[in-house]
Design brief:
By secondary structure, this protein is an alpha/beta fold. The chain is about 30% helix and about 30% strand. The protein has six helices and ten strands. The radius of gyration is 17 Å and the shape is globular.
């Protein structure tokens, strides 16, 4: 446990000057970020949620291919005031607008370089597979989920499959009159021996 505390302190010191990678999404109670047909009309529009204030905290957007395709279909491939980076090894440069940057190189190296650049925090917008990939690389700083009062029964899960186990620390929570529950967790960097043993056991 003492070793974990030392590791955690070292990470905190190193990351003090870096931009944060924040996975901020809406989710159903049963853990889906889109419905079975990619639908998002189940997301509650609560006037008490200050979406403008949330967006003002970011100046970069990270998305996977499927999320980007949904944004393109909706006619909104970018968000105002944010650089958009699409992570895909199958999309070609001609398939994305000039206002969007395609990331098809080493994800870890790219994200670490982006984090070291001056700027606001970085919004990991989705989807679950990109989140799982970056979380497994130790590149996600927080998980911020707004749970909608709805069950979808299927769709894109909050997190994709992967060999990872992340311990979280609750930093903030809020319940809105419409039934939305907002949760913000910090991702703890240190991994205990018990965590490591659990992953090894799962691989057997």
């Amino acid at each position: 446990m003492a070793q974990d505390a030392v590791i955690e302190s070292a990470f905190e010191a190193a990351e003090g000057t870096m931009r944060k990678i924040r996975y901020a999404v809406a989710s159903s109670v049963d853990g889906y970020i889109t419905g079975p047909k990619g639908d998002v009309d189940w997301i509650v529009n609560d006037p008490a949620v200050d979406f403008g204030a949330l967006m003002a905290q970011f100046d970069a957007l990270l998305v996977g291919r499927h999320t980007f395709e949904m944004m393109m279909k909706a006619g909104r491939p970018t968000m105002a005031g944010m650089e958009t980076f699409v992570f895909s090894r199958t999309l070609g440069e001609r398939e994305v607008p000039k206002s969007v940057s395609l990331v098809n190189c080493d994800h870890r190296k790219f994200v670490e370089t982006l984090r070291a650049r001056p700027g606001k925090d970085i919004w990991l917008f989705g989807g679950g597979s990109l989140f799982a990939s970056l979380l497994g690389e130790g590149l996600v700083d927080s998980v911020e989920v707004s749970i909608m009062p709805v069950l979808l029964g299927g769709g894109v899960p909050l997190s994709g499959a992967g060999e990872y186990r992340a311990r979280l620390q609750l930093e903030h929570h809020k319940i809105y009159p419409t039934g939305i529950v907002s949760l913000k967790y910090r991702v703890l960097r240190g991994r205990s021996d018990q965590d490591a043993e659990g992953i090894q056991e799962a691989r057997k």
